[in-house]
């Protein structure tokens, strides 16, 4: 359900929106971007001024220049019924930060050591697999030589 | 037509939820210093202004498969909160949703399952309930002040097929008699549609009669088979 905002005519007071229903998604840029540029996916109804005010007021981020474009979502793929399936269109905003700030997209999924809790099922399974693998390995004193060779 | 908007946020800078140990989903209970609780100092929290870092979780939670989160806000809990608190909570939920959406998109990009995706639905539900509570309050205020039940004016109108529906008015810059597209709309039922309306009514009544008779038949059959059984509530 889209909200109907009052119509603007010359002389009307500035429209103020309480509780905006717009969500921004920070995305990793596909192509290499300058260090001060942040890439967002924004709803289609937002404009450059909206994004600027949004970031400045809600996130307190100094915004320099903004450029937007609309990405067409493909309508080429077909499903098992041979019907065309439309990927939704979305608007992309390239925001350049003011005051010489830079931003690099962080690595949010670093490799982490998976440690199971004591006495759990997964831990016992892990131990069992480890023991099995240990049995398959040859005597380390043979120095990698296979069992085919006598002695 | 651009909507030049200046977001009306008041007193947001003066408060933010305490660190990130308590996510916005847990029902926080904070009291004003002048309540009748045993002596406690007024709680002062520092506002967290991390700029673009607010689009990402705490670094400890990066790479986890599950992140703990509380229950969504219920309408009952939200009705106890003041308007200022609801306003602030809206922005807290908004930022949380932005965070989760960035996480979802990055997970899709890296082809990795997102940690606890149910958080997005929880936040959505909380926001919807907040909206309903705010609308309730606004509607009550409007009723008291002006006597209008609905914020958006409308009227009962007929369409070409004889249906009577609530037509909600739209705001235009010109009057209706200068609006060519609006004049092409017809809000009346022509005479030749009357037989169709009668047939439709007959069909509806026939379906309703069939439904009631079916229920009666099943009940009588059950009574025949199980004479001592209780009559079911349905």
TrEMBL record, chain A:
Q: What is its main location?
A: mitochondrion
Tell me the Gene3D superfamilies matching this sequence: 3.30.70.330
Q: Name one Pfam family in it.
A: Ribosomal_L23
State the UniProt keywords alphabetically.
Answer: Mitochondrion, Ribonucleoprotein, Ribosomal protein
Top-level taxon = Eukaryota
Which GO molecular function terms does the record list? structural constituent of ribosome
Location of this chain's protein in the cell: Mitochondrion
Please provide the Gene Ontology terms (biological process) for this protein.
mitochondrial translation
In its keyword annotation, does this UniProt entry include Ribonucleoprotein? yes
Which terms in the GO cellular component ontology are assigned?
mitochondrial large ribosomal subunit
Q: Which family does it belong to?
A: Belongs to the universal ribosomal protein uL23 family.
- What this protein is called in its record is Large ribosomal subunit protein uL23m
Q: Can you name the source organism?
A: Gasterosteus aculeatus aculeatus (three-spined stickleback)
Automatic annotation (TrEMBL), chain B:
Predominant location category:
mitochondrion
Q: What keywords are annotated for this sequence in UniProt?
A: Mitochondrion, Ribonucleoprotein, Ribosomal protein
An example Gene Ontology biological process: mitochondrial translation
The GO terms this record gives for MF are: structural constituent of ribosome
Quote the biased-composition stretches of kind Basic and acidic residues, using this chain's numbering.
212-227
Region of interest (Disordered), ranges: 210-234
The keyword tRNA processing is assigned to this record? no
Q: What is this protein called?
A: Large ribosomal subunit protein uL29m
Q: What is the lineage of its organism?
A: Eukaryota, Metazoa, Chordata, Craniata, Vertebrata
């Amino acid at each position: 359900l889209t909200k109907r905002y009052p119509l603007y005519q010359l002389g009307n007071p500035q429209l103020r929106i309480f509780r905006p229903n717009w969500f921004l998604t920070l995305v990793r840029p596909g192509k290499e971007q300058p260090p001060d540029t942040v890439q967002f996916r924004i709803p289609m109804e937002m404009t450059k001024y909206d994004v600027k005010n949004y970031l400045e007021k809600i996130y307190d981020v100094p915004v320099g220049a903004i450029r937007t474009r609309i990405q067409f979502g493909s309508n080429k793929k077909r499903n098992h019924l041979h019907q065309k399936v439309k990927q939704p269109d979305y608007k992309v905003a390239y925001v350049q930060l003011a005051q010489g700030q830079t931003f690099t997209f962080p690595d949010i999924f670093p490799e982490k050591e998976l440690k199971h809790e004591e006495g759990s099922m997964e831990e016992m399974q892990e131990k069992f697999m480890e023991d099995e693998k240990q049995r398959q390995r040859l005597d380390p004193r043979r120095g990698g030589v296979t069992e085919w060779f006598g002695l | 037509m651009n909507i030049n908007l200046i977001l009306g946020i008041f007193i947001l800078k003066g408060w933010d939820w305490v660190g990130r140990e308590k996510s916005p989903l847990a029902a926080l209970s904070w009291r004003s210093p002048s309540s009748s609780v045993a002596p406690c100092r007024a709680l002062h929290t520092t506002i967290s202004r991390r700029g673009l870092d607010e689009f990402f979780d705490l670094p400890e939670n990066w790479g986890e498969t599950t992140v703990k989160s509380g229950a969504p806000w219920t309408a009952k809990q939200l009705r106890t909160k003041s308007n200022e608190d609801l306003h602030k909570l809206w922005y807290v939920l908004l930022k949380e949703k932005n965070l989760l959406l960035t996480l979802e998109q990055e997970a899709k990009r890296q082809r990795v399952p997102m940690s606890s995706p149910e958080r997005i639905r929880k936040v959505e539900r909380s926001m919807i309930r907040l909206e309903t509570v705010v609308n309730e309050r606004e509607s009550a205020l409007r009723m008291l002040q002006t006597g209008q039940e609905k914020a958006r004016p409308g009227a009962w109108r007929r369409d070409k097929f004889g249906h009577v529906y609530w037509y909600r008015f739209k705001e235009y810059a010109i009057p209706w008699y200068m609006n060519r597209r609006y004049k092409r709309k017809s809000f009346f039922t022509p005479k030749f549609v009357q037989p169709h309306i009668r047939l439709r009514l007959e069909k509806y009544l026939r379906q309703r009669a069939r439904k009631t008779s079916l229920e009666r038949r099943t009940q009588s059959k059950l009574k025949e088979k199980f004479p001592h059984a209780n009559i079911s509530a349905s």
